[in-house]
Write a structure and sequence with these properties.
Radius of gyration: 30 Å
Number of domains: 3
Number of strands: 12
Helix content: 40-55%
Shape: globular
Distance between the termini: 46 Å
Strand content: 5-15%
Strand order of the largest sheet: 10-5-12-11
Oligomer: single chain
Largest sheet: 4 strands, antiparallel
């Protein structure tokens, strides 16, 4: 199948489909590669990684994201919120996966790879593989950025390796009936009393000294920065105002707009081409965007572009490498955009006076939380002591001028139970009747609850969710087994990342 795909590549490259534009944010981002490449002489399994080998693995990460291979990303640590950490973890773990797969003789066949490629959603139309979309993807999205069809296949091979290896590693996972009985407790109706502790409402009155502000500023000066902002010119290709086109007429009109936008980006690549001249020639308007940051917050709002459009074009704008460079075509709704960065205002360190409001707010919030936690913990301990001495929960609360509220016959796991009642009922799952829970956090602050009674399991509710709960528990056990296998395998890989960086 792979040979069939390659054999028809020349024909497929001639097909142009513009109805859907594939967003490829990570494919434009070379900063991660630059960061990883600065590590000097990294080694794994006793062998040094060359810059070329690192480049290959970074491309694997970027292409894995683009192809939507989320199981591979998630299991190998590529979904961390910190992008640099996600990239680093994914690269090392992928090398471990590839090595261990070879040791175990796990190697997907060409037919398996080809069949999986045909199942990727971005290559399908109405649920079936479309070779035209595959060809367009390779020729228009991969080739211009140095990616090849072989790299696409390698990503799918890695996904198949992961699946095969996971089945071996996770095979011992099983769920016992005792575990299911413990889970069934969440389906027992609970009656409980509880006391709320609310956070301070006047935290802004907490005093913060200049010395405290100065100390925080000195400790965190390197991270106290202004936001980078950019100004840009935005060429807009959109349907005429008041257009009521539908069906094929609308599709044809949008295709013409997309073609025009693509022609403009192609022309910009030629020396001497001006964005303004090309936009005028294409009959498209240009919108000047005042400085905005990565969240899309502008210094001055643009009446021409709404918030939804800004959320679509801002990420691409911040991936443009320098002033005067332009983006590829960006689609938002029924319009197409080409962005040229006109000004880059880099982040700079905040002065003490500029940082003062932020630091003071942070210090007040920290102090307020400390005061609240200390007071709530003291009150909860006093409640337990009074109940242990023979007072009722209500009497013990009254001594501290606290109000006892109650939930009756609440099933913690029921979908109809409110989040607040779920939290309160959930805090009693391990309690015996009369016992008081630990101090539990809540949106309003915190609470403690006393279990009054627990009724038999709601068999109807539990039965409806039993298979889902069993599968979730099994999935968690499998994930833990895989994480432990990965930890041990990484230790055996003897990964070293010297702190020295290349100059």
């Amino acid at each position: 199948m792979i040979q069939v795909l390659r054999k028809n590549q020349r024909i497929l490259m001639l097909v142009v489909a513009v109805l859907t534009i594939v967003a490829f944010i990570f494919l434009y981002n070379t900063t991660q590669l630059d960061e990883l490449a600065t590590i000097k002489n990294p080694t794994i399994y006793g062998k040094s990684l060359t810059p070329l080998a690192i480049d290959r693995q970074v491309k694997n990460y970027q292409l894995t994201l683009a192809l939507g291979q989320f199981e591979l990303l998630q299991k190998l640590g590529g979904t961390a919120q910190d992008q640099d950490r996600a990239l680093t973890e994914f690269v090392w773990n992928l090398l471990v996966l590839q090595h261990q797969s070879r040791e175990l003789g796990i190697e997907p066949t060409d037919d398996q790879v080809a069949n999986r490629i045909k199942q990727i959603p971005i290559f399908q139309v109405t649920g079936k593989f479309d070779p035209l979309k595959y060809g367009q993807f390779v020729s228009e999205q991969l080739a211009p950025r140095g990616f090849t069809e072989r790299q696409l296949e390698d990503v799918i091979r890695d996904s198949l390796r992961l699946e095969a290896l996971s089945k071996i590693v996770e095979a011992p996972a099983a769920i016992g009936e005792g575990e299911m009985q413990a889970m069934a407790r969440a389906f027992q109706p609970v009656t409980a009393g509880f006391v709320k502790f609310e956070r301070m409402k006047d935290a802004d009155k907490i005093q913060v000294s200049p010395e405290e502000v100065s100390a925080i500023y000195q400790q965190n000066q390197s991270s106290l920065l202004t936001n980078e902002t950019r100004e840009a010119s935005c060429v807009v290709f959109e349907l005429p105002a008041g257009s009521k086109l539908e069906g094929k007429e609308k599709v044809d009109a949008l295709q013409k707009l997309a073609n025009a936008a693509s022609e403009l980006t192609d022309s910009l690549a030629q020396a001497g081409s001006s964005l303004e001249q090309l936009a005028a020639k294409a009959g498209a308007k240009i919108v000047k965007l005042a400085a905005f940051d990565r969240t899309g917050n502008p210094a001055q709002p643009s009446p021409a572009l709404n918030a939804e459009t800004m959320s679509d074009i801002v990420p691409a704008t911040f991936l443009i490498p320098k002033t005067g460079a332009t983006s590829d075509v960006i689609q938002s709704g029924d319009a197409f955009y080409v962005i040229e960065v006109t000004t880059v205002n880099p982040a700079r360190p905040l002065t003490l006076d500029e940082a003062r409001p932020r630091i003071e707010a942070q210090l007040r919030a920290q102090k307020a939380e400390q005061i609240f936690t200390a007071d709530a913990t003291s009150a909860a301990n006093a409640l337990r002591a009074a109940v242990a001495a023979g007072k009722s929960f209500t009497e013990a609360a009254a001594v501290q001028n606290l109000k006892v509220e109650e939930i009756k016959n609440v099933v913690a796991a029921a979908e109809s139970t409110s989040p607040e009642n779920q939290a309160i009922a959930g805090s009693t799952l391990l309690l015996k009747e009369g016992e008081i829970s630990n101090l539990e956090g809540a949106p309003w602050g915190a609470f403690v609850a006393q279990l009054q009674s627990r009724a038999p399991v709601d068999q109807m509710a539990f039965g409806a969710r039993e298979s889902q709960i069993r599968e979730s528990l099994l999935r968690n056990k499998r994930d833990l087994l895989f994480m432990e296998w990965l930890r041990v395998s990484r230790e055996a890989a003897r990964i070293t990342m010297p702190e020295g960086r290349q100059g």
